[in-house]
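Appendix B. One record, verbatim.
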Amino acid sequence: MNQEIIISGFGGQGVLSLGKILAYAAMTEGREVSWMPSYGPEQRGGTANVTVIISDAPVASPVLSSYDIAVLLNQPSLEKFERKIKKGGILIYDGYGISSPPAREDISVYRIDAMEAALSMNLQKTFNMVVLGGLLKAVPLVNVESVLDSLRKTLPARHLGLIPQNEAAILKGMELLR
């Protein structure tokens, strides 16, 4: 397995954390990983993205020009990365942040209404975990239990009580993907 993934959206959406948790979960499952964040100096509100590579073999370079999977959470990210998805690849987008939906027909496109779900659950801070649930439904890159273990190991102690809400958000995302 070798999956090259870009996750992109506005700073503050948990893009980098989503990528970090995914990479950590894959690492705990014995896979080779690369996690390379990119964000502007403004962070919250500015554009942020992270490249994650999950592989069964050592990763030669974290720098990519095309992707197997793109998770795009706002219009600027869609405009920047849609054309960089490999033919036959996968695009997952949040309906809340995209005003002009994806146009490509040579890739699989999934919409997830993650922001709407996070708001309805009154758990806005779990938005990124709703998105991760959708990603894992489309492409089971790692086990949900590995994600939860990764959250336990990477969250600050003051946030460990939020793991049940994060698990609920992941499961909700798995239900929502269409």
